[in-house]
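Tutorial, part two.
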Amino acid sequence: MNQEIAESEPQLDGCIRNFSALLSSTPRGARLARLLAADQLRNWGLPCEAATHVVAELAANAATHGRLPGRSFRLTLYVIGRTLRVEVTDTRGDHLPKLQESGPDAESGRGLMLVDVLTDRWGVAEGRFPRKTVWAELRLPSPEPAPTRSGAAGD
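Running the prediction step on this input gives:
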C-alpha cells in the first residue's frame, strides 16, 4: 500500500484536513479503504458510521467496476468547514456509475442508492482519461458546546 497523509494549514474558520491513500483494486483494497477511513475519521474526532458506509460502497465499486489489472484506486478524504468530502478515483473513465433501481430479489446494484441516502450530494467528475472520480459530501454535525462547571461543588 502506498499511503500519503497530509494536514494543511489552518484557515480563518478552522483547518482543512485531508487524507489520501493509493490502494489495490481488489476486495482487500476496498476493505482497507473502509478501515483506513474509519481510523482517520476517529483520529479527527468525527462521526464515522455513515462516512465509512459511503467509503465502503465507493471503494467496492472502484475495485469491481473500475478495476484494470495492475492499476490502483485512490481514496481521498477532505474536511472543509462542516463538510466531509469522500473521493474515490479509479482508472475506468469509460464506466460511469449511475443510480439505478434494483428489484427486491437482486443481489447487487444498491450501492449508489445507499450513497444517495447517506450523503447530502454526490456525483462523478471525469478526469484526464482514463480516470474518473466518484465523490460524495456529508454535512458534519455542529460541535457540542463544552459543559460548564457553574454550580459545581468546590467552585
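Strands lie at 2-11, 14-24, 72-80, 83-90, 121-126, 132-139. In part three we will examine how such features are distributed along the chain.
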